[in-house]
Amino acid sequence: MTAALASLQARRIGKPIMLTLEDIREQRDTIERTFGTRESLEDKRDIIGLTLDERIALRNLEDLDYLEGC
């Protein structure tokens, strides 16, 4: 028996974006106002777990730390 499989489609990736330290700070402040600091999210994760939005926020904060060179 044979089955038809959907073929992969090529996706175009946009041009890289250069973030300034000010852009990074603004993104961090927005996330921290909504969800809390990275440390508070990590503590909450260890105690009771995180919602999907909180997990995404924590990942974004980790990415911003990397971009800042922390």
Automatic annotation (TrEMBL):
Organism annotation: Bifidobacterium catenulatum PV20-2
Highest taxon listed in the record's lineage: Bacteria
Protein name: Uncharacterized protein
